[in-house]
Write a structure and sequence with these properties.
It is a single chain. This protein has 73 residues and is of the alpha+beta class. The protein has two helices and two strands, in the order αββα. The protein has a two-stranded antiparallel sheet with strand order 1-2. A hairpin with a 2-residue loop joins strand 1 and strand 2. The longest helix has 21 residues.
């Protein structure tokens, strides 16, 4: 088995920190079929992010809305 170069190694904690800081969306489809007839189709979507990142985004968005209200039409 070949070794991964030192600069490409990343600790699990660092990877988790990067994912939670930026967020990740996971999308998938599950189809249950019998005799090539689709019986059930389920679309799955999930967002994984930290509460802090979501709160900061909402705060920034709210500040933009307030700035537009102050400047007027």
């Amino acid at each position: 088995m070949s070794e991964v170069p030192e600069e490409r190694r990343i600790a699990l904690v660092d990877l988790l920190d990067r994912v939670l800081a930026g967020g990740v969306v996971i999308v998938g489809d599950v189809v249950l079929s019998v005799a090539d007839v689709d019986m059930v189709r389920i679309s799955l979507r999930t967002l994984i992010s930290s509460v802090r990142a979501i709160a900061e985004d909402q705060w920034i968005e709210q500040q933009g809305i307030e700035q537009q209200g102050i400047e007027g039409p």
